From TrEMBL:
Membrane topology: Multi-pass membrane protein
GO molecular function, one term: transmembrane transporter activity
Entry's transmembrane regions: 81-101, 108-127, 139-159, 180-201, 228-254, 266-291, 297-315
Signal peptide: 1-22
CDD domains the UniProt entry points to: TM_ABC_iron-siderophores_like
InterPro entries according to UniProt: ABC_BtuC-like, ABC_transptr_permease_BtuC
Primary residence: membrane
GO biological process: siderophore-iron import into cell
Name of the protein: Iron chelate uptake ABC transporter family permease subunit
Localisation per UniProt entry: Cell membrane
Lineage: Bacteria, Bacillati, Actinomycetota, Actinomycetes, Micrococcales
Keyword set, alphabetical order: Cell membrane, Membrane, Signal, Transmembrane, Transmembrane helix, Transport
Length: 323
């Protein structure tokens, strides 16, 4: 864990230092300790700090939510993007823009939370139909179907309204650029509550990983455990999606990497995912900034480039079909 925290700190420093205009380590330290408003390099460093903090918060939220979703669903393919939670949040944000003229984050967050909750309930309800219940394969198929359906409806709304498209298109790609401290202070309470709920669910997720029948035999209230953990996941996914847009695969890649050295104990998987997921998001953001200077590739595109091959690898491994 100490090594993971050090890696996260290095990633944060790199996020502040690197970009279209790189700054030296000495300048970075001076800007953070003795800021000079007349120094252009100091101004560049200061402008990158909110972006880095937002990546830290959003990455931690998505990694923690992905790990918890895999535990609740007992599905190694569970991820806020794959199971349709991000799509639900994005669709409700579009509806908020189109019908109510929402253009500020204070409005986005409530619609995103509602959309994430509705999508999570729909996916689990549809997957639960039938004799076998919510199997990993059925959850993945239900999430993919819901994502496709919501994306079609969202595109229909965007095509019919140029104003909605203009507001939504930059947010849709998933980016850390352009957000300031106002977004961070608005999203922080939701992320803090969601993280507290989810981090406290480690023992419950360990019980659920044994199967519902065995968990009940050990005295666990399965429905209550799933409901409370799902509440934490919705808060994390909804708030993070509202702040930075729909970013996929962070919650899929990191828990699997963490599980390779922590084992199946969610009391370790959850905190490690919280610490290491921002590393992936920040490094992807740095890569997007350095790829096409002075422009940049949105971080949502970069995480998809990294995460898609991992997802294909997981699908093709039969031993990873379930947890």
């Amino acid at each position: 864990m100490a090594a993971a925290v050090v890696l996260l700190a290095v990633s944060c420093l790199a996020s502040v230092a690197f970009g279209a205009r790189a700054v030296s380590f000495e300048t970075l330290v001076q800007a953070l300790t003795a800021f000079d408003p007349e120094n252009g390099d100091h101004a560049v460093v200061l402008s990158r700090v909110p972006r880095t903090v937002l990546g830290l918060l959003a990455g931690g939220a998505l990694g923690l939510a992905g790990a918890a979703m895999q535990g609740v669903a007992r599905n190694p393919l569970a991820d806020p993007g794959i199971l349709g939670v991000n799509a639900g949040a994005a669709f409700f944000v579009v509806i908020g823009i189109y019908l109510f003229g929402i253009s500020a984050f204070s409005g986005y967050v409530w619609f995103a939370l509602a959309g994430a909750a509705v999508a999570a309930v729909l996916v689990y309800t549809v997957a639960s139909l039938g004799r076998e219940g919510a199997t990993p394969l059925k959850l993945a198929l239900a999430g993919a179907a819901l994502s496709a359906g919501l994306s079609s409806l969202m595109n229909a709304v965007l095509v019919s309204s140029q104003q909605t498209l203009d507001i939504f298109r930059f947010w849709q790609m998933g980016s850390l650029a352009g957000s300031g401290w106002d977004v961070i202070t608005a999203v922080l309470p939701f992320l803090a509550v969601g993280a507290a709920i989810t981090l406290g669910a480690g023992r419950a997720l360990n019980g659920l990983s044994l199967g519902d029948d065995l968990a009940r035999g050990l005295g666990q209230r399965v429905a209550l455990s799933r409901g409370i953990t799902a509440l934490g996941v919705v808060l994390l996914c909804g708030a993070a999606t509202a702040a930075v847009g729909p970013i996929a695969f962070v919650g899929l890649v990191i828990p699997h990497m963490v599980r390779s050295f922590t084992g199946p104990d969610y009391r370790w998987i959850l905190p490690f995912s919280l610490v290491l997921a921002p590393v992936l998001l920040l490094l992807a953001d740095i890569a997007g900034r350095l790829a096409l200077p002075p422009g940049e590739i949105p971080v949502g595109v970069m995480t998809a480039v990294i995460g898609a091959p991992v997802f294909i690898w997981l699908v093709r491994r039969r031993k990873q079909a379930q947890l």
